[in-house]
Amino acid sequence: MQNHIIVNEKNYYKRLDKFLRNNFDTLKLGFIYKLIRKGFVFVNGKRIKKQDFELNIGDNVEIKYNGPLDERKKEEKILPRPIDLEIIYEDEKILAINKPAGISVHPGRNVEKVTIIEGVLYYSKGEFEPHLVHRLDKHTSGVLVIAKTKQAARELTEIIQRRVITKKYQSLVLGKLSGENIKLESILEDKKAILYYDVLDNYNIKNIDLTLVDITLKTGRKHQIRKQFAEIGSPVAGDNKYGNFEINRELKKLIGLKRYFLHSYFLEFEYINKRYTLIANLTPDLKNIIDRLEV
Fold it and tell me: What is the CATH number assigned to the segment(s) 87-161?
């Protein structure tokens, strides 16, 4: 394996981890993080241990690791597998789908179900190579954008990282909230996390208060929405990791809520002098929850 690469316009990714992932593609992603964490990655001769270190054109990225590369990917290619996809937009650069809940975006350890990227590869029929530019958690539904070329993936990733993008979600949370343009700000992953929310409606079922909120996400931290609403005592309904297991169990019985209620319904950005406005309707399972609450 070539152990050093000069950053150029063709192979450029701003973040170190993304650069390594796309230019040392025989290595597992987890192994790449391990190499960074343990100090085996150097940029211009300097040891770098931050996975989000920002690269520049001309940088010399080197892996100084003499151990066995026994953590290589067992299979370098993702295999196309059929899956039903709800396409909400497509052109020569991007494909946007309404991702269903319960499906991972990418193959991983112990993932046996067909994943989104495998389904898109099948859909492409070899006409384009799909590249993920952002992610949604397995049980989150909504707008998911896939780039059709490496160049588009680099450019779209840059747009997302610069936060010149509007991301909106709908969520049902526990408790009775009120207000408009309410700001939540906290520290997650040692970084600032910010979102704003508007209350759309309030419900009460068997003395359980619920609030439907419209969320504008300003930063993109892991599980950010779920963590921040849990912090204010109004966790996302159905979220057993950060929420209330007992209430969630009751909601499953009362209204059939089988996963956490979180849906990415709106994504807007400008790319190559074109404004993309991508909208994904609530998935049938979540729409059914609202219908039952409004009876």
Answer: 3.30.2350.10
